[in-house]
């Protein structure tokens, strides 16, 4: 009689564990959150693969035909007979292709500026909360002063000063890094204040005292022990901050002090489109504006869901 041995159960991978967790259950039972995640994923992938998805390179002068200018969506051009999914602008640029490239720039600036805000805010918040004393007072007073001004004004000030410090010939080439830096620096106080408050709570716990007793350096204690316990709220702020960063970038570009014309974002496209809305070419403004609205609204919905999912009082 043959003996059969039960095969060992496979350990579920990280995706299966995440899907079956409380947060995974909260996600898959919220249709609005799943729809928002789908919209963000589709737009992000389309922007990432814009060079392969876009029918034309809208910013290559050799591919433009002025005879196709101001062609309505899904309508043959009166001169060339070419059709464009979302129409063209005054220069004959395909609006669909321009949106893909513009969303790419908007997402890049938004993500990079949030990374700058997190790095600066979390680092200063940890330092202020753990060290305390005059250093804590100095960092928090600077944060309080900056919070008295609107983020957009702080970003415009930093952007203007940084661009004014370099030669005119180099201003366009550094416009995007300066834009990222200005938005990132304008939004660090929210992260610093949150992390400082959580660090004040964590530094008095037994595990931090034990780390001090064994002689671990302060930087190691903050990085390895305190930071993992305060990162949850930071992720929520970062998710909500991403939509604000994208809107701030669009506002700066709309005002003409953001992305340069050679590297346009959705804000740049909206600024161009508003010049033609009164003459009847509504699609030049409408489709970039709807794309920006979809990104900001979807990311905000994801941030609201993440905030509730990470709050134990709101589970179940």
How would you portray this structure in words?
Keywords: Cell membrane, Membrane, Transmembrane, Transmembrane helix, Transport. It comes from Azorhizobium caulinodans (strain ATCC 43989 / DSM 5975 / JCM 20966 / LMG 6465 / NBRC 14845 / NCIMB 13405 / ORS 571). The protein has a domain at 113-316: MetI-like (MetI-like fold, Orthogonal Bundle). The chain has 14 helices and no strands. The chain has 316 residues and is mostly helical.
In CATH, the homologous superfamily of the domain at 113-316 goes by the name: MetI-like
Number of strands: 0
> Which ranges are low-confidence, i.e. pLDDT below 50, for 5 or more consecutive residues?
none
Helix content: 55-70%
Could you tell me how far the N terminus lies from the C terminus, measured between alpha carbons in angstroms? 51 Å
Indicate the proportion of strand residues: under 5%
Compute the number of helices: 14
Mean residue pLDDT: 83
CATH architecture of the domain at 113-316: Orthogonal Bundle
User: Main β-sheet: number of strands, strand sense, barrel status?
Assistant: none
Order of helices and strands: HHHHHHHHHHHHHH
Overall spatial form: globular
CATH fold-level topology of the domain at 113-316: MetI-like fold
| CATH class type of the domain at 113-316 | Mainly Alpha
Give me the Rg, rounded. Answer: 24 Å
Please state the structural category: mainly alpha
Provide key terms for this protein.
316 residues, mainly alpha, MetI-like fold, 0% strand, transmembrane, MetI-like
Topology:
Elements: H1 14-20, H2 22-28, H3 31-48, H4 50-53, H5 95-131, H6 133-147, H7 151-164, H8 168-171, H9 175-186, H10 188-202, H11 206-213, H12 218-254, H13 266-274, H14 283-309
Helix pairs in contact: 3-5, 3-14, 5-6, 5-9, 5-10, 5-12, 5-13, 5-14, 6-10, 7-9, 10-12, 11-12, 12-13, 12-14, 13-14
């Amino acid at each position: 009689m043959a003996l059969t041995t039960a095969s060992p159960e496979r350990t579920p991978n990280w995706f299966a564990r995440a899907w079956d967790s409380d947060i995974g259950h909260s996600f898959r039972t919220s249709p609005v959150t799943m729809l928002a995640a789908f919209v963000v994923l589709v737009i992000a992938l389309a922007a990432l693969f814009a060079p392969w998805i876009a029918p034309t390179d809208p910013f290559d002068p050799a591919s433009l035909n002025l005879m196709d200018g101001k062609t309505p969506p899904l309508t043959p051009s009166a001169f060339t007979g070419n059709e464009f999914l979302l129409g063209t602008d005054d220069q004959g640029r395909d609006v669909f292709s321009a949106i893909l490239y513009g969303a790419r720039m908007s997402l890049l600036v938004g993500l990079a500026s949030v990374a700058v805000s997190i790095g600066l805010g979390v680092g200063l918040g940890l330092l202020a909360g753990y060290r305390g004393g005059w250093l804590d007072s100095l960092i928090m007073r600077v944060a309080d002063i900056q919070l008295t001004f609107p983020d957009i004004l702080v970003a415009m000030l930093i952007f203007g000063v940084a661009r004014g410090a370099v030669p005119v010939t180099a201003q366009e080439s550094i416009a995007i890094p300066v834009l990222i830096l200005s938005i990132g620096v304008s939004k660090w106080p929210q992260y610093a204040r949150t992390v400082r408050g959580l660090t004040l709570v964590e530094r008095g716990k037994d595990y931090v005292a034990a780390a001090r007793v064994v002689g671990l350096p302060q930087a190691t204690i903050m990085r390895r022990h305190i930071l993992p316990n305060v990162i949850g709220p930071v992720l929520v702020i970062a998710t909500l901050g991403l939509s604000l960063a994208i809107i701030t970038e669009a506002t700066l570009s709309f005002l003409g002090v953001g992305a340069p014309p050679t590297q346009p974002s959705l804000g740049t496209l909206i600024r161009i489109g508003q010049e033609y809305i009164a003459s009847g070419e509504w699609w030049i403004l409408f489709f970039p504006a709807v794309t920006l609205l979809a990104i900001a609204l979807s990311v905000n919905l994801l941030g609201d869901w993440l905030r509730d999912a990470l709050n134990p009082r709101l589970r179940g």
